[in-house]
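Write out the 3D structure for:
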Amino acid sequence: MIRSAATRLARPLAVASSSSATSSSSAPLLRRSIHIEKKMERLGIELPAAPLPKANYNIVCLPPGGETTTMYVSGHLPIKADGTLITGTLGPDRGGMTVEEGYDAARHCALNILATLKSQLGDLDRVEQVVKVRVFGIVNSHTSFHQQHLVMDGCSDLIMQVFDKPVGYHARSAIGTNTLPLNAPVEVEAIVTIRRE
């Protein structure tokens, strides 16, 4: 039986501990280093609560692997810290959002992705490489709007600000579409390489 999105929670990844055979599988157990989190604190970057899936899917997928493995992060919408969703369509010449407003929305997508990674991994220092910030029908825009790449910089700039080179330097695509779920202006998914601990 399929559970509703309202009741389905994305559980943190269970991580094997080399020092204890009684590790709990309901929460990540790992060595804390918090360099990235300290950097975010210095930069004044605050993460929202980790979002939940909006339909029948998991917020991340982590295939089995060795010491490092690839994590696939589902599409994230621009949800603010107060829980409100930024909505709208890009295209100021048609009465829509400006590039600057879209940039801000994409930045909020990145914040939500980071919140998910923090929730799932417990420690953002476990991110070895942001492989790709992938846009899949990502910028909700009018047909006359052709600056989707500048909108997506809102996400890319934050990822680079937090992780810097080489970890944060990623591949990317920017695609326009005529609609997105919940009338969101931007949706972003990511592929990251993580270190198992």
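The first strand starts at residue 60 and ends at 61.
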